[in-house]
Amino acid sequence: MTFASMTWAVAALTAFGIVLRPFRWPEAVWAVAGAVLLASLQVVGLSDIWAGIAKGFDVYLFLIGMMLLSELARMEGLFDWVASVATARAKGSPSRLFVLVYIVGIVVTVFLSNDATAVVLTPAVYAACRAAKVRDPMPYLLICAFIANAASFVLPISNPANLVIFAGGDMPPLDRWVATFAAPSVAAIVATFAALWWTQRRSISADTVATVVEQSHLTASAKMAGVGLAATAFILVVASAKGFALGMPTCAAAVLTTIVVASVKREYPLETLKGVSWSVLPLVAGLFVIVEALDKTGLTDHLAGILRAYSITAPTATATVSGLLAAVVSNLVNNLPAGLVAGSAVQAAQVSDKIAGAVLIGIDLGPNLSVTGSLATILWLNALRREGLSIGTWAFLKIGAVVMFPALFLSLAALLAFGP
Length: 420
Hints:
Layout: H1 3-20, H2 27-40, H3 46-55, H4 57-75, H5 78-89, H6 94-112, H7 114-131, H8 138-150, H9 160-165, H10 174-205, H11 220-242, H12 247-265, H13 270-275, H14 280-296, H15 299-313, H16 315-333, H17 335-349, H18 353-365, H19 375-386, H20 393-418
């Protein structure tokens, strides 16, 4: 068996494990197992493993910071309070509640990342629906899944996949990012709302919402967590505008916020630390190692060569096809490994912002097709299960096909029409 065939076989098995989770083992187990198997087969050496892991350093810091802030907000009841306010403002209208939850989902995704929307906002929305005596909470819970990906390229901080795609390269400064993705983001958010509303209109029209809802109390520590979140968002916007790496300021702001909240409560933040999904870190690290091995097979150079050649002869078609392929592949192997490979190819090819933007839109928005497309959607599914709810793969796919494709086509069209 050749070096390349062994690498591809291990990469395929790893992707299979992450997407399907045989034996219900966590995704991180399969990613780490794939990296260990590559090392045991001597496909990669220690230097390659370290090189792969090191490429994700900024991503790890960003994830730690965002997960810490999200768990802190969850424990202090900040998102429960936000959801209860939205429910109260619905004033008995399921349509108004749908719109309000969607708006909250946009804000959380844009400033706290799509994983926060999946992990933290989902149980808060379910609790708010239960308090409002909503008969069918699924339309409102679906918002958390779909907006988590649809709004995930508004800012660089809105999706860890954005950092993954630019790992080892230069993250575009904020002004260039906004110029590239402002119109596509609006198109994705509006189109996703319209399609999701269309698929859920019968359930919403038949639903009822209590007019009197008990509102959650906002404690002093929850207020401090909110201030910390707002300050972190401001710091990250400034850092992005200046072209700085986002991992260190995110992690530092999260640690400082945690210390301040712990001081206010006069207790150690052990429960907050326990609640963080630390398994995400070895998952991402393992994927970086596998992509490092794939790079040695010439995959990145091959893809970069194709992108470079066609970007010169047919730039518009290249951007469109690249975005569509990235979206489809993300659903087959999950958007984290797809983003790692695509990002490496885009950086090596040094293509225009429009082509790079089309790839990123495909990686971020494409996973709205299936429950295994992105880490955020997988986390959302797990959050549903903790509440005793579930949605089948086929049921989600039928909704996803209606919601994702119009949003993807319109976003790519907006990028080509209004991008730099």
